[in-house]
């Protein structure tokens, strides 16, 4: 056993028990081995209850109501903002903009800071391992502005080629964007170093934190990134909750993203002026219940401790990599060392199509994802059309990994027949 059920004071069996959906068994009495948290995580009872409680006891539109319910809803929504700020160690809750997800956070930066600050001929540096969410918005901006786009190469062992990054930085890019953790390879990129190098080259940085913030301690001040986007639904929170962190001085210099209620200071037929940040970026009625649910998810994760979360996943990833080595004809992509990767394991199994592998695993009540994982340029770099991906979180244990291995052997047996 690589991990024990009680590790550094965390009872992982109890943690698993906090997730109602994982308590169910299938017709054959097998529990669900949920290995798709990189796509979206499951939710603990505490988060589900926080959302339900909001709708049962507090539901009202926020900020402008002068009655008790509205004031309570406003207070809970703003408290969730403070919790999110605390979670990533932002200097101020004003640096936290509530959005629907990582995608919206990145588009917000592209359409506001980007449109104002990127011009014809400017270079935007992306990476070959970016999720489409951190590539397509920059392509759209580059097309609109006549800017150039270049992608940092990925090495054979699934890391960013930092020499290539330095070559691109020598061209003085306006912007450098990259994933803190790759959602396909699991690679943990040296984010602090990349941000430092980018800043030395005079670039602004956007970190896609979708796969890092839920899984390890992330301190935006230590990272010094200008913007960090992440999704609540990948960190035990509700779908529809997400965060864009931005340095206050940058946010304050940005025009609004969308126009409407809540984001203005003064409106006349002739024109409007904008509210202070972060309200400037939160036009219309926000997803109040979801933000409150995200706050509950933050509290839950802090209760476990993010260092413990990371340690649990590191140990389980190490165990999974070891067990997967036993499966013949299985190729795992990304760094070999569990220290250098998060709990995301992409692989191919001989010439069996990734979707067939996932379908057979599903028959075993093992849930994984198959496809290009919104990383088509990376798939091209790896020379594959698709991979099967198993991803881990706080509720996974060795039994889930063992079930994966059994399922993979069964897939091989079926295709060998
Ligand atoms: N970036 C990365 C690295 C991701 O893994 C994902 C989702 O899988 C996203 C961005 C997009 O997240 P969302 O769909 O929540 O906007």
Summary keywords:
single chain, Aspartate Aminotransferase, domain 2, Aspartate Aminotransferase, domain 1, 2 domains, 4-stranded antiparallel beta sheet, globular, disordered N terminus, binds pyridoxal-5'-phosphate
Please characterize this protein's 3D structure.
- By secondary structure, the chain is an alpha/beta fold.
- The protein has two domains: 48-302, Type I PLP-dependent aspartate aminotransferase-like (Major domain) (Aspartate Aminotransferase, domain 2), CATH 3.40.640; 305-416, Aspartate Aminotransferase, domain 1, CATH 3.90.1150.10.
- It is built from 14 helices and 17 strands.
- It has helices at residues 12-17, 45-58, 68-87, 102-117, 136-145, 162-169, 191-200, 220-223, 248-252, 288-304, 306-324, 354-363, 376-382, 398-416; strands spanning 6-7, 10-11, 33-34, 96-99, 123-127, 148-152, 175-179, 204-208, 227-231, 242-246, 264-268, 271-274, 330-332, 344-349, 366-367, 369-371, 387-391.
- The strands form five sheets. Strands 4-10-9-8-7-5-6 form a seven-stranded mixed beta sheet, sandwiched between helices. Strands 13-14-17-16 form a four-stranded antiparallel beta sheet, covered by helices on one side. The protein has a two-stranded antiparallel ribbon with strand order 1-2.
- Helix 8 (220-223) links the parallel strand 8 (204-208) and strand 9 (227-231).
- The longest helix has 20 residues, at 68-87.
- The radius of gyration is 22 Å and the shape is globular.
- Residues 1-5 have low confidence and may be disordered.
- It binds pyridoxal-5'-phosphate.
- Pyridoxal-5'-phosphate binds next to helix 4.
